[in-house]
Write a structure and sequence with these properties.
It is built from nine helices and 22 strands. The protein has helices at residues 3-17, 259-270, 307-315, 331-350, 354-363, 384-401, 403-416, 424-435, 440-447, and strands spanning 31-32, 50-62, 67-78, 82-88, 93-99, 102-109, 112-117, 126-135, 139-141, 147-152, 157-160, 180-189, 193-196, 199-206, 209-220, 227-230, 233-238, 244-249, 278-282, 299-300, 323-325, 420-422. Strand 6 and strand 7 (112-117) form a beta hairpin. The longest helix is centred in the C-terminal third of the chain and has 20 residues, at 331-350. The site of zinc ion has 5 residues, from helix 4.
């Protein structure tokens, strides 16, 4: 059997044999929602039968002990008649849950939490489920060996969620196809800051604790949710367009001052900025060897805070964050645009034509390891072809259609799927519509083909 299917089956058998139910009643009619959304790389991520609209997370964190206490108040809509439904949560202990105010039975099996409400939910119903939980959130090592999830520092922690780390700090529907709005309320010891996505409400001191509140009013995929707790220096300014810029860093980070300028340049290239605030979080205590495009507030570790990476993470706000992948197979749609933004930055700011960047990427054997639209395994979704060869796809489109149509495609793609999800098929169809011709050679050679082309198809 396919190892993925046998793992999914094992999870079902485990769920069937595990007891450990708490609270709740007998359940109503309908079927249980699926335990996963069948993503090609992470079949158990996400859950079937409902669609989250809003997460209201109330958290308290103790950096000394590493202990997190949380309540997740989730508003969702049932997309089928549901006798039970699942949430994804890795580690942590669930203490109890309600659905529409009534106690629900809680089953736990690994990273799957099953809630069975006293009365079933009808398709189309909007419902609220409240989950109380606590524990010491874990750091995950993902398939390619990178660390994500909950990362502790000397005075706090940083939550990084791609692709599955968001499951380590709140229960939810952790697949990029289910975007939702968020409100985060975080209580930490005085002297520490708590930074998240979106816009802050005034913080409230109470005794020896302070409570910070952040709201994301545009939809967000859960892997883009972040929380950084620590002794940060925070600043608020505005872009010339009036967009608030919220930054957090440990001491001096002069590059932060370039955010308004770079965002203005990207707005010219990509169209209206999709979110109601921007900024960055820079924490040199974190050494994960990557930056992350956490929504409206990209995160930079000790190795990654440079101008080109800042351009890359800001470009993701259009490509990846506003236009989100339908599944983890569509990762190249995120990384190709963000990498191409770096090529455009080199073109506009350093007199390096994108053609030079293309030639360099073309010469790199690593970019030909597999087709960007079809990474062989979960360990490859952030591999070099997804970035370098993905950007080559965009450059070949530019060569085929010319600059005017190409820059129209960059803006039009962001506008067409603003705050929604899109797949590789959607992209191919959109580009050919705009180009007014089929680009079969580009797709066959760069997007889906095996190996470096030679001769006329290159
Ligand atoms: N998306 C990050 C970037 O800006 C890189 C990254 C970190 C990543 N973790 C990942 C990509 C997991 C795919 C999967 O390039
Ligand atoms: Zn990226």
């Amino acid at each position: 059997m396919d190892p993925r299917r046998s793992r999914a089956l094992a999870a079902v058998l485990l769920a069937a044999t595990l007891t450990g139910c708490t609270g709740g009643g007998e359940g109503g009619g309908g079927e249980p929602g699926a335990a996963g959304l069948g993503d090609p790389y992470f079949p158990e991520l996400g859950n079937g039968g409902y669609d989250v609209r809003h997460y209201a997370l109330t958290l308290a964190y103790e950096p000394r002990t590493g202990r997190l206490t949380g309540t997740a108040d989730i508003t969702a809509r049932a997309t089928q008649t549901l006798s039970a439904f699942n949430l994804d949560l890795t580690g942590l202990t669930v203490h109890g849950a309600t659905v529409d105010g009534a106690p629900a039975t809680v089953h736990r099996s690994g990273s799957e939490v099953t809630l069975r409400p006293g009365a079933g939910l009808r398709s189309g119903d909007t419902f609220r489920t409240v989950i109380r939980y606590s524990g010491t959130p874990v750091t995950l090592t993902d398939a390619e060996g990178a660390r994500e999830g909950w990362l502790r520092t000397s005075d706090g922690a940083v939550a990084l969620g791609e692709p599955t780390g968001s499951t380590t700090w709140f229960p939810g529907n952790h697949h990029p196809s289910d975007k939702a709005t968020y409100a985060l309320t975080v209580t930490v010891p005085n002297g520490l800051q708590a930074i998240s996505n979106g816009e802050p409400a005034p913080h409230r001191p109470s005794g020896d604790r302070t409570t910070f509140t952040w709201r994301s009013t545009e939809p967000m995929a859960s892997y883009l949710a972040t929380l950084a707790i620590g002794r940060y220096e925070t600043k608020t300014s505005r872009t010339p367009d009036g967009i608030p810029v919220h930054t957090a860093a440990r001491g001096n980070a002069p590059l932060l001052a370039r955010i308004p300028e770079l965002l203005a340049w990207e707005t010219k290239r990509f169209g209206p900025y999709p979110f109601t605030s921007t900024g960055a979080i820079v924490d040199p205590q974190i050494d994960v060897q990557y930056a992350l495009e956490t929504q409206s507030r990209p995160f930079f570790d000790k190795n990654t805070f440079d101008a080109s990476t800042l351009v890359h993470e800001l470009a993701h706000q259009w490509y990846g964050n506003s236009v989100s992948p339908e599944s983890w197979r569509d990762m190249w749609l995120n990384e190709s645009f963000a990498t191409y933004a770096e090529w455009l930055y080199a073109e506009d700011f350093a007199d390096t034509p994108a053609q030079d960047s293309f030639d360099e990427a073309f010469a790199d054997d690593d970019n030909w390891a597999f087709p960007p639209a079809d990474p062989p395994t979960a360990a490859d979704i952030s591999g070099p072809p997804v970035y370098g060869r993905g950007a080559m796809v965009l450059h070949k489109i530019r060569q085929a259609v010319g600059d005017d149509t190409f820059f129209g495609i960059l803006r039009g793609w962001a506008a067409k799927h603003r705050h929604a999800n899109a797949s590789t098929e959607d992209f191919v169809t959109y580009v050919e519509d705009e180009a007014g011709e089929e680009l079969t050679t580009v797709w066959d050679t760069y997007l889906y083909g095996d190996g470096r082309p030679t001769g006329p198809s290159a």
